[in-house]
Every structure is written in structure tokens, then in C-alpha cells.
């Protein structure tokens, strides 16, 4: 155990229990002078003293855990990313160690700010409809699941490590696909068949015959993903249910079902792209998405999705935001390992490079983008297309975006040629016109809701700003 100084935390525990230094010293079997030195950070906290404190004060040893401090430091770094004066890592560590309550309060205030932004967007949705009796918007099942993943920083340690263990077993055998097929057969009595031609879904499971049918259109990587998803549902059902036995999933069946599928898909991604091996390759190749896709035999979108989940305590990757949109601006997927101003109401900024990518299909488009609050990000976007074989069969095209805070950009190959110090060169973007306060944007389609209402003095009511008499505003 390295030297750990936790004087402030120790003084706080003593004060909460109404003990004097002499009384606590007697309870711990220490001299008052030695305890005083511990509380003044003149002596480090040893393992033997820590165990005595745990027994005497009835506190969990985890109360002094470095893991908890690391999480607090990471959370404070996120909360203070746009602070007017940079806060150094030693200062953050000192705060997390000596004043954890202050650190948690700071993080909580930051989260309240994020919640306020979310309510602002919900208000924008309501005000954007001309019906006065429009009820307050409620979360759809996919939104509830998305918020659940966000609350866990898009990382689930127990599931991720279990999937990594499966991957190690598969590597020791004949390979991933044969291992998955045999595991389903031997452990669960499930047979696997492949449908001929197109299939309505990628995977279907007949519980009566214990048969798993995969679409004939899937490549090997996609087959492995679907087999792993089914294995997760069968073998990790209890672990998954333990995670989702929380509101709103305890009373909302559609959201609960969607959350189970989402966590099973998470396991599948962690199996196909095992954490340690994948993170090592990502760091080695500076997060080059196409190289990673080639190395692991999966698609561009799959790599982007996995990169947004690399937040294992003690071994984190770059905290990414992942988004998938169509040409109409509909966001069909979004995941974040940290905070980003994703819009809940659609109509996201047309200046964002995820839309520019549609004009350059198949090409990676980098962008430095600055939000109205001053935060600057590095985004890379590229189109991905899916189509069924056969003449005249309709296809699907999306733009996939992957972004991170600018402070992480030097770790990415996509920062080549960019002047990361010149934040003024970043493209000004926003969450969407209704909630973006930029007044000089020529792409604005709607007024900012903070300016969208004005008082008509003659009628004593609120009217849309665009129709108000400027002389009376």
C-alpha cells in the first residue's frame, strides 16, 4: 500500500461521531500525538490503522478506497473542463482525497446543470408546438434506456469482464464462431441455423425448438455478435436483471425489455472486441478506426460504438461520444462515456460534420467544433451504408460520428494537421436552433426559446417573438 494521507477525512469521521482526539486515540489504541499527526497529514495512514478505524468507527474500508478517489477526480475533470482557470490534476487529487464532500458537491452541481439543459430542451419541444394544452413530454422507452447507459458512463464492469473471459476461452479453442456455436449447444441445448436469402430480422430464437436462426446476409463478425447476444440473454440473464431492477424499468415493461436487449448487445460487443486487447490496439494505432475495423474483422460503426465504452476504472480509454444520424437529422443511436450536449428534440445543428459527411460518402471528415458554452471538441464522421442484395432492394445510409473533448485530441490520429491551440478556428455549433443562444448564426431555423416569447402590452399575453411589435418588446 502506497503512502496515503487522509487527515481531513479522518477528522470529519471523528467529528460526525462527536469524539475528541483523545477519545478516538483510546478507541484505536494509538497515542493522541500520533492521531494528531494523522489528522494533520504529517503521517500516512497505514493498513493496520485503517483496519482499526474500520472496526472502531464502523466504516467500510472502501471509504478510503483509491478507486473512489479516481472516480471523483475523473468526474471533477469533466465538471471543470470549461473552467475559466485550469485546475491541475494534483489539485483535483488533493480535493478528492482530503475534501471528498466538496468534490461530490461540485460534481452534483455539474450534473444539475446538465439536467437543466435537458429540461430546457424539453421546454423547447413543448413550445415548438402551437397547442397550448400539449402535455409535458415523457421519456420514450429508448430514451429511458439511453439515459440508463449514460448514468453508467456507458460501461458495465461485471458484464465487460465476463465477456472478456469468454473471449479468452474462445481464443484458446477453435475460434470465436465455433466456440459460440458449441457453447450454445452444449450449455443450453440451442441449435444454430442460417436462413436462405433475406430474413426479416438478424436473429430469431424459437424457445419451443431451441433453435436460433440467423439471417443469411450476415458476415462472420455479425454472426458472432448475434450468437453472443443470445448467449448473454441465456447465460447472464440474472446479472442483467440485477442491473435493471431500478426505476423506470421496474414498472415499465417496454423499457425493461429494451434495456435487456441493450445490455445483451453490450456483452456481445465486449466479447467480439475484448477490452484489454482492443484498448491496447486502439492506443497503439492512435484510435485509427479503419485500422481497428480491419484488425478485428468488424465494421466501422461497431468499432465506433465499442470505443465509446472504454471506461474501465484504472484502465480508461479516451472518453468518446458516439452518434448515428440519417439525412433527415434523426438520431437513431447515441452513446456517451462523458457529458456532451446531445439534443433530445432533434433538429441538431446543420454545421455539425455528421451532416457534412453525407456529401463525402465513405470519407472520414474531421472537425473541431465549439459549443455555445465554450467547450471545444474534435469530431470525426463518416457515412456507412447497408443494403440488401438484389436489384432494386432499398438500402440505408447513416452518418456515424465519434467525438471527444479537445484535451484528448492529441491521442487521436485525426488530430494530424489541426492546430489544436487555435480554438477560434473551431466551427461554432449548437444543440439545435430552439436551444442555441447564438445570435449571429446564419443557419438558424427557429428563434432561441429564451428570445422566442415577448409580451404584447395591449393584450397582456405572450406571443411569438417573430410576430411581436419590436417597439413593444
UniProtKB/TrEMBL annotation:
PROSITE patterns: HTH_CROC1. InterPro entries: Cro/C1-type_HTH (IPR001387), HTH_RamB (IPR026281), IrrE_HExxH (IPR010359), Lambda_DNA-bd_dom_sf (IPR010982), ScfR_C (IPR018653), TransReg_Diox_bact_type (IPR050807). Transmembrane segments: none annotated. Keywords: DNA-binding, Transcription, Transcription regulation. Residues 10-64 form the HTH cro/C1-type domain. GO terms for cellular component: cytosol. One of its GO terms (molecular function) is DNA binding. Belongs to the short-chain fatty acyl-CoA assimilation regulator (ScfR) family. This is Cro/Cl family transcriptional regulator. It comes from Ottowia oryzae. The lineage of its organism: Bacteria, Pseudomonadati, Pseudomonadota, Betaproteobacteria, Burkholderiales.
